[in-house]
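Page 47, continued from p. 46.
Same chain as before, 145 aa.
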Amino acid sequence: MNPPMVFGPIHPKLQTLDTLNTSNQRIRDMMLGKLQDELPAAGVYIWVDVRDLALAHIRAAERPDAAGKRFFVTAGYYSNKELADNIREQLPDRASKIATKGGEFPEGGYFEYDNSRTKDILGINFRSVKDMVKDTIPTLQAIGA
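Result:
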């Protein structure tokens, strides 16, 4: 499995915001108002929900036609602006503490990807950024975000 940025609900055994994976730290920082002035560029503009990545692992182990193959497991493009917009929608009481400028896609465009093997062989139907954010927020709130 070859994933890009991995976002999504955290495991219930994770007890502190300090031990989050790098990708989810972006959501945490937005929720905590640490990015009030300007959103940074994403840098890597493709992502996957951790649950879709886990399912890809399971299906690759179960399906003989997946043997010996590499899978680019990505749901598609995202930007930090899109993350912030979705967090503001889910947490309107914190909206004023999340920057509205920056975090856009780069002006010169971005790279292309091909996840057709993952969809065709593993049958993954990827979650949306909106659904991932909606499901991730309560898990981060449970440990102090």
